[in-house]
Amino acid sequence: MTTLLESRYRTVLRLLPAYYRREREEEMVETYLWDVDPDTQDQSRPTLGEVASIAALAVRSRLGAPGAPRRYVLLGSTVRLFALFAVLLQAAAAAADLVLELGWAVGRGGPGQHLFLSQFTDQGLLTAVVTAAQWTLPLLWTVAYFALLHDRRRLARASALLAALPTLWPLLGPLTGALVPADPTFATAFGLLAWLSALALCAAHHRDAPPARLPAGTPGLVFMSACVVMGASSVVLPAAADLAWAPASCFVVGALGWLLWQARGRDGATPGGALALAALGLLILTARVAALYPWLHVPEVPAAYLGGGLAQTAALAVLTVALAVVGRRDLVAAEPGLS
Fold first, then answer.
1. Residue 84 CB contacts under 8 Å (≥ 6 apart), including other chains
2. Is there a contact between 233 and 249 (Cβ–Cβ < 8 Å)?
3. Is 117 exposed, middle or buried (0-12, 13-18, 19+ CB in 10 A)?
4. Can you list the pairs that 328-336 forms with residues at least 24 positions away whose Cβ atoms lie under 8 Å?
5. What pLDDT does residue 338 have?
6. Alpha carbons 61 and 63: distance in angstroms, whole number
7. Chain mean position to CA 230
8. What was the pLDDT predicted at 277?
9. Left if phi > 0, otherwise alpha if psi is -120 to 50, otherwise beta: which for 177?
């Protein structure tokens, strides 16, 4: 006779994919019920720890755990590549912003240095602490990127979560009265990019996942290339540069390179790469539109900013659609049943 506790365990186990339940459900139920008094099973429930453990197992088993069906292997590869590409993009953006800002302050001598330091000293303790965190914590994207590629997964996860924290301040700061309310759409778009990157890294690069690796190049060379592209895009067209400009420019260059790489038949070792880039492109496109939209109805906006932003938006949209089409084609080729 099935007890209420057994039914509850089986309900929680439905979080697991069907292939995993077919192989392990009975064994898991027996293990959970092994030392529970049969007379108390109708008054008992799975513990929060057991539910959390099953939920974590459900994520791992859907993201390329050993023995998973092909579709889950592809999903895991896609999410892992998305996390890697997104962390790389934000690591390069943080490093390039820091170098450009410091270069600007040093290049203008005393007045520039005073203006740079005033953001830490002239607006109260809370604002100074938050400003310092907004400068330093994003540099942990770089730590997450190199830790991930050197298979230091715990360090990569912790670094990515800490690096994403500053994106919460534009949303929470106005609630404390310590910050002038910013455009919530703009802040939400950048926060979404940061937190989806961090959560994808934590979920997909689990202990059973294969080590992270780049499709081409060495970690240092790829990182420096991304930094150079971002820095150059801001230096060449400073009138068009905003928070979305450099990351979007880097994505456009990287996505074009990926499509050329795939056209030459070099993508076989990285299944899901096009879909990962398409998902990242959609997030960057959202941030690009959120940054540009409030200025469309403002008179006397510099033509360079408006024209550069619209051109970049169009390029992002075209590339995202192209990557989605290529990714769908690759997915159908790998899983004929999806066609």
1. 145, 148, 149, 201, 212, 214
2. yes
3. exposed
4. 328/275, 330/267, 330/271, 330/272, 330/274, 330/275, 331/74, 331/272, 331/275, 334/70, 334/74, 334/271, 335/70, 335/71, 335/74
5. 45
6. 6
7. 18
8. 95
9. left
pTM greater than the 0.90 cutoff: no
In which element (H, E) is residue 267 found?
A: none
Q: Which among 262, 268, 249 is positioned nearest to 311, based on CA atoms? A: 249
Give dist(CA 29, CA 263) in Å, integer: 49
Token match 């293990």: residue? 31
What pLDDT, on the 0 to 100 scale, is given for residue 155? 96
| E-only strand ranges, the chain | none
Cα separation, 164 vs 202, whole angstroms: 13
256 residue type, one letter: L
Enter the DSSP assignment of 167: G
Query: What number of residues does the chain have?
Result: 339
**Exposed/middle/buried for residue 317 (C-beta within 10 Å: 0-12, 13-18, 19+):** middle
Instruction: Return the pLDDT at 121.
Output: 64
Report the candidate in 135, 86, 75 with the shortest Cα–Cα distance to residue 272.
Answer: 75
Residue type, 159: S
pLDDT at 339: 41
| Residue spans of the chain under pLDDT 50 | 267, 337-339
Closest-CA residue to 190 (of 141, 132, 224, 226): 141
Per-residue pLDDT, 324? 93
Tally the C-alpha atoms within 13 A of residue 298's C-alpha that lie toward its C-beta: 9
Return d(Cα 77, Cα 64) in angstroms, integer.
7
Looking at residue 304, its amino acid is: A
Contact at 8 Å (CB) between 276 and 79?
A: yes
Question: What pLDDT is attached to residue 261?
Answer: 80
Q: Which residue matches tokens 């715990």? A: 154
Maximum Cα–Cα distance across the chain: 82
